[in-house]
Design goal:
Layout: H1 7-31, H2 35-38, E1 43-48, E2 54-57, H3 62-65, H4 68-79, E3 89-92, E4 104-113, E5 116-126, E6 155-159, E7 162-163, H5 165-172, H6 178-206, H7 208-231, E8 236-244, E9 254-263, E10 266-270, H8 286-301, H9 309-312, E11 315-318, H10 336-351, E12 374-380, E13 386-391, H11 421-427, E14 430-437, E15 453-459, E16 463-469, E17 490-493, E18 501-502, E19 510-517, E20 521-525, H12 540-549, H13 554-559, H14 573-585
Length: about 575
C-alpha cells in the first residue's frame, strides 16, 4: 500500500519538478545557436512519469504540450521500453507518430536511478530548416508529407551517452543549416540531461515512492479542479465552426465544425462534420488537434490549474479520420499549426453558446489573430553562407468580459517571443524598416480586440526568396456578442511605391519561393483580435483614450463606436448621444 504524502511535501516535490522543467528550457535556450531558440523560445520541455503521463512542464507552448505525450508514447512503444539504457535519447519528428509538423523535432530521454527507470524527460523544438522543397520547410504547395522535409521515426540519436554519428550525419545531410542544427540538437539533448539530473536529485532527497505519489496527487488535483469547473456548466450540446482561408492549392474556405457536449463533469469535443483533409499542407494531425482542444478547455475553465495529463482526463476528443483535424498519411501537414488556430477558435466559439447567467460562466474571449503568420526569408549572405529567417509575428487577442484584447502578442496557441530587431539585423542581411501597431486593427466592441502589427523587412543580400504560409487574409477573426471582427492580415511587396503588389495574390497568405532582389521590401501585417460586446456600449472615455494613443482613428470612433471626437481629442457628449441613438435605431 502506498503511504500518504503530506501536502507540504507534495508541493515541494511538484514545485521541484516544475522548476526542473523550466530549467530544461533555460538550458536549451542558453546553449542553442538559432534565433528561433534563443530569441523566439519556440520550444517546450516536460517531465513524464513511467506511464508517459505529463506531470510537469515549464511555461512553454500550449500547441506543443498537448501533443508531446503522443510522441513520448510512440517513442516508448516503437523502441520498446526494455531496450532503453541510461544515457539514451530518442529523436523523432514524424507528425503521424505523435508529432506536430516536421520542423518540430522531439527528443525523449529515459531517466534512470540505480538501474531503475523512474520517468522521462522530453522536449520539442522548432528547427529553422528540416529539408524539403523550400528553405525553412514551409512549402505552401505541398501535396504530400514527403515534399515537406526529412521525416524521422523514433530512433536513438544518443546511445549510452554517445552520439550515434551515422544517424546525426544522415540528418544533417538533408537540411540546409547543418551547423546550426547540430548545435541545436545537442542543446535539446542537454535540456533532457538537466531533467535527468534534477529528477534524480528529488528521488535521492525524498525517495522514489514519495516522488511518484506526489506526481499522482498533483495530476489528480488538476483533474478535480477541471471537473469542478465543468460541473458548473449546464449539460447540453454547443456547436460552432470556424474556417481557414484556403488550403494553398484551391482558393476555397475549409471549415472546422465542432460540438462540445457537457455531461456532468465530462466533456466530449466532437469534430464530426469537419471538412475532409485537403490536398495542400493545411491539415492538423491528431496530436496537434488534441493540443488545440486541451489548451482551450484549460483557458476556459481555470488557467491557474497546474497543467498536466490530469487536466486532459475529463475531455474526450472525437476527430474523424480523413478530415483536416485527423488526416491520413501521407497528407501534407506543415501548416497544421494554422488549423490548430482554427480549432481553438471554433471550440471557443462553441463554448460561447453556453449560457452566461450561471454561477461560474465559461472564461471566453473573441477570436485572436488566428494564425502563426509563417514568413520565411532566405538566401546567401555576403560570405556565401546560407541564411534562413523564420518569422511568426504577433497579432491581436480577442476582447473578453471586462478587458480589451492584448495587442502585439502571439496567439494563444503559443508562448513565443518576437525576434528583436537588433537580433535580426545583427545575424541576417535584412533591415527592419518599420515595426508598429496597426491602427484600427482591433475589432470594435464594448471590449476592443487587441491590435496587430506591421513589420517591413528590407533585403540587403543581392537576392533572396520569400515563402508564406498563413491565414486570416480572407476570413478575419470573429467578434463575440455583437463585437466586430478584427482586421484581416495582408502581405505586400514594395509597399508605398509604384511597384507595390500583393505578395500572394492567388491565396492571400500562401506562396513559396517568391524571388526577391537587393533592397526589396516585404511588408507583413498580421490580423487583429475580434471585439467583444456591442461597440455602442463602450465607454466614450475609453474610445477617446484609444484615439489619443493612436489605437483607433477618429473615423472609426465615429463610425464603429458612435463617439464623436473633437479636434482637441475630447468627447463631444451631445453629438455622441445623438449619433448613438441614431445608430441603435438603424
Amino acid at each position: 500500500m502506498t503511504r500518504d504524502v503530506d501536502p507540504v511535501t507534495v508541493e515541494v516535490v511538484t514545485s521541484g519538478l516544475a522548476s526542473a522543467a523550466n530549467e530544461m528550457g533555460i538550458t536549451l535556450r542558453q546553449t542553442s545557436s538559432s534565433t528561433i531558440f534563443n530569441e523566439g523560445n519556440d520550444y517546450s520541455c516536460g517531465i513524464f512519469n513511467t506511464g508517459a503521463e505529463l506531470v510537469s512542464h515549464g511555461e512553454f507552448l500550449p500547441i506543443h504540450l498537448g501533443s508531446l505525450p503522443y510522441s513520448v508514447r510512440y517513442a516508448i512503444d516503437e523502441v520498446g521500453v526494455e531496450n532503453f539504457v541510461s544515457g539514451d535519447s530518442i529523436i523523432l519528428n514524424d507528425p503521424f507518430r505523435g508529432g506536430s509538423h516536421l520542423p518540430d523535432v522531439t527528443l525523449v530521454t529515459p531517466i534512470f536511478h540505480e538501474g531503475e527507470l523512474i520517468g522521462w524527460g522530453a522536449n520539442r523544438a522548432h528547427h529553422l530548416d528540416v529539408g524539403g522543397t523550400v528553405a525553412g520547410s514551409f512549402y505552401s504547395e505541398a501535396r504530400e508529407n514527403y515534399q515537406e522535409g526529412l521525416r524521422i521515426p523514433p530512433v536513438k540519436l544518443i546511445k549510452g551517452g554517445r552520439v550515434d554519428a551515422e544517424i546525426m550525419e544522415m540528418i544533417l545531410a538533408n537540411v540546409r543549416l547543418a551547423k546550426s542544427m547540430r548545435s541545436d540538437l545537442l542543446s535539446q539533448v542537454s535540456a533532457n540531461l538537466t531533467a535527468t539530473r534534477r529528477v534524480v536529485e528529488l528521488v535521492e532527497r525524498y525517495g522514489l515512492e514519495t516522488v511518484n505519489r506526489s506526481m499522482e496527487i498533483e495530476m489528480d488535483a488538476s483533474e478535480r479542479r477541471v471537473r469542478a469547473a465543468i460541473r458548473k456548466w449546464p449539460d447540453g450540446r454547443y456547436s460552432a465552426e470556424d474556417s481557414m482561408d484556403n488550403d494553398g492549392i484551391t482558393d476555397v474556405p475549409r471549415t472546422v465544425r465542432v460540438t462540445v457536449e457537457v455531461h456532468g463533469d465530462d466533456l466530449t469535443v466532437d469534430f464530426t462534420g469537419t471538412d475532409p483533409q485537403v490536398e495542400g499542407p493545411l491539415n492538423s494531425v491528431l496530436g496537434y488537434t488534441a493540443s488545440g482542444v486541451y489548451m482551450t478547455i484549460q483557458a476556459a475553465t481555470d488557467p491557474t490549474i497546474p497543467p498536466n495529463s490530469g487536466c486532459y482526463r475529463p475531455v474526450e476528443i472525437i476527430a474523424p479520420e480523413d478530415t483536416i483535424v485527423n488526416p491520413r498519411f501521407p497528407a501534407a501537414c506543415t501548416g497544421g499549426n494554422e488549423i490548430v488556430s482554427v480549432i481553438h477558435n471554433a471550440v471557443y466559439r462553441a463554448l460561447g453558446e453556453i449560457p452566461r447567467d450561471i454561477e461560474k460562466p465559461v472564461l471566453l474571449m473573441a477570436a485572436d489573430q488566428g494564425s502563426s503568420n509563417n514568413l520565411i526569408l532566405s538566401g546567401y549572405d555576403s560570405e556565401g553562407e546560407k541564411f534562413v529567417l523564420y518569422e511568426y509575428p504577433e497579432g491581436g487577442w480577442g476582447g473578453a468580459e471586462g478587458r480589451d484584447g492584448q495587442s502585439a502578442i502571439y496567439s494563444i496557441i503559443g508562448n513565443t517571443w518576437n525576434l528583436p530587431v537588433e537580433a535580426i539585423e545583427m545575424k541576417y542581411p535584412i533591415r527592419i524598416d518599420r515595426y508598429e501597431l496597426r491602427q484600427d486593427s482591433g475589432g470594435p466592441g464594448k471590449w476592443r480586440g487587441g491590435l496587430s502589427i506591421r513589420r517591413d523587412y528590407r533585403l540587403l543580400a543581392q537576392k533572396g526568396e520569400l515563402s508564406l504560409l498563413g491565414n486570416r487574409v480572407r476570413i478575419p477573426p470573429y467578434g463575440l456578442f455583437r463585437g466586430h471582427h478584427g482586421a484581416p492580415a495582408c502581405y505586400r511587396l514594395d509597399p508605398g511605391t509604384e511597384n507595390e503588389q500583393l505578395a500572394a495574390p492567388e491565396f492571400g497568405a500562401k506562396k513559396s519561393m517568391i524571388p526577391l532582389v537587393h533592397d526589396q521590401v516585404v511588408a507583413q501585417e498580421t490580423a487583429g483580435g475580434g471585439g467583444y460586446g456591442d461597440p455602442l456600449e463602450r465607454d466614450p472615455l475609453a474610445v477617446r483614450r484609444d484615439v489619443e494613443f493612436g489605437y483607433v482613428s477618429m473615423e472609426s470612433a465615429r463610425d464603429d463606436y458612435g463617439v464623436v471626437i473633437t479636434s482637441e481629442v475630447q468627447v463631444d457628449e451631445d453629438a455622441t448621444d445623438r449619433l448613438r441613438k441614431t445608430m441603435r435605431g438603424s
